[in-house]
Amino acid sequence: MAGRLDGKVALVTGGGSGIGQATALIFAREGAKVVVADITVEGGEETVRQIQAAGGQAAFVRTDVSKAAEVEALVNKTVETYGRLDCAFNNAGVEGGVKITTDCTEEDFDRTIAINLTGVWLCMKYEIQHMLSQGGGAIVNTASAAGLVGFPGLPDYVASKHAVVGLTKTAALEYAKSGIRVNAVCPGVIETPMVARGAQMAPGFDEQALAMEPIGRYGQPSEIGEAVVWLCSDAASFVTGIPMAIDGGMVAQ
C-alpha cells in the first residue's frame, strides 16, 4: 500500500528530538524523503539513522533557525538534495524561562522570540519562495496551547506562540490561491525533553501539568506528528489557516 506522501520531500526543523523526531519518522513512513534540521548534531543524525534503518531516505543539515543565512542554506540544500520541497514542518523552538512578566529579562525575551517566532518566519520566507516556483506545497508551524490561551510565568513563550498563530493565518491568506496551505499545530503538554526540562526547573510541574489535561495524561510526540502529516497530505486539501489544538482538551476548559 502506497504511503500518503510517496514522492514528496519534507523538511523538519527541530527534528533531533521530541515532536520533530517523531514527525520526521512518520513523514518517512508515509513515503516522503526527509531533510532533518536541528542545531544539535547528535540528535539530528540519530533521526536520520532511524529513518534509514527503516528503509527510508533522509539527510541531516545542522541549522540555527534564528539565522537567515543558515535557513536559506537549509532550504537550498533540501532542494539541491532531493529536487523539490513539498512539505515543511517548522517545529524548532525553545521553552523560554519560567518567570513572570516583570522578571523576564530582555535576553530571555529576545532569545525566545528569535527562535520560536523569527525562526518560523525565516523558514516560511525561504520555503514559500521554492513552493511558489513549483506550484504549491504545505507548511505546518508549531505553535502551542500557549498560542491560544495565556499561561502565567511564561510571558516570552506565550508571546512567541501567539505570534506564530497570527503569522500562520496571515501566510495562509496570502498564498491560498497559490497552492500553498499553511497551518499550525498547538500541542498541549507532550512528553518531550522540553517538558522534562520544565519539570526540572519548576517543582510540582508534573502535578500542575497533568491537572490541566482533561484527558488525564501527557500527549505523545507521535500524536502531534500524525496530525502534522495529515495536514501536509492531500486528505487536508481544503484546510488552511487553522491553529489545530492537539491538547487533550486543555483549551476547551
Provide a quick synopsis of the model.
This protein is α/β, with parallel strands linked by helices. Helices cover 47% and strands 15% of the residues. It has helices at residues 18-29, 41-53, 68-82, 106-134, 155-174, 193-201, 205-212, 221-232, and strands at 9-13, 33-38, 58-62, 87-90, 137-142, 180-187, 243-246.
Kindly describe this structure:
This protein is an alpha/beta fold. 47% of the residues lie in helices and 15% in strands. It is built from 8 helices and 7 strands; from the N terminus they run βαβαβαβαβαβαααβ. A 7-stranded parallel beta sheet has the order 3-2-1-4-5-6-7, with helices on both faces. α1 (18-29) packs across α8 and α3 (68-82) packs parallel to α4 (106-134). The longest helix has 29 residues, at 106-134. The chain is globular and about 45 Å long. The model has no long low-confidence stretch (mean pLDDT 95).
Secondary structure layout:
Blueprint: E1 9-13, H1 18-29, E2 33-38, H2 41-53, E3 58-62, H3 68-82, E4 87-90, H4 106-134, E5 137-142, H5 155-174, E6 180-187, H6 193-201, H7 205-212, H8 221-232, E7 243-246
Parallel strand pairs: 1-2, 1-4, 2-3, 4-5, 5-6, 6-7
Helix pairs in contact: 1-2, 1-8, 3-4, 4-5
